[in-house]
Amino acid sequence: MTQRGRTTPPRSSGGGRRQSAGGERTPQPRVSKERVTAVVQPVVVSAGYDLEDLAVSRAGRRHVVRVTIDGDRGVSLDGIADVSRAVSAALDAAEEAEGDLLPGEYELEVSSRGVDRPLTLPRHWRRNVGRLVKVSAAGRQITARIKAAGDEGVTLDVDGTVQEVAHADLGPGRVELEFTRWGEVEGADDEDDEIDEEDEER
């Protein structure tokens, strides 16, 4: 899911890009990722999300700002659109106030984190409880299901054996895609039992 923000018009300073006495164009100042992050992060947090990643690159004459967000309840398309508008407004305001934050044109892309990214922080594990993951735990590569997750570590189900593993002993986890999530099958069995009982009563 990606929401593209509007592209700002070029910031002019009288007559386009500055030129030196010899007619050569003066190179644009380098964009500071730290300055851009300082503008973007408070906006994302105030919207109720976490800033997972921010990248600034060049595409021709324009800058591309890619913002990745996540939340405990996921991120909806409306949420992405709201954050995109708020971040765009904040970047424009910061440019007007400070100048040279993002010289020239820029394009903003806001997207959700997605399940393909590695689990590296406690909140990543907490938000994926119930999922099957591949991870290095205490130096051993395993496939396990996340039963619970906290600030200190996670509870993993490895082939029916429950293990408590501290975050310090975990490598980056990779979510395994499944057609049926843990708990859904159990819920389906319960529904079947209820239907059978109703049939017997009839």
TrEMBL record:
Ribosome maturation factor RimP C-terminal domain span: 119-179
Stretches the record annotates as Disordered: 1-35, 183-202
Compositional bias segments (type: Acidic residues): 186-202
Cell compartment(s), UniProt: Cytoplasm
Domain Ribosome maturation factor RimP N-terminal per the UniProt entry, residue ranges: 40-116
Pfam families: DUF150_C, RimP_N
Bias (Low complexity) ranges: 1-25
Gene3D superfamilies with a match to the protein in the record: RimP-like superfamily, N-terminal
Entry protein name: Ribosome maturation factor RimP
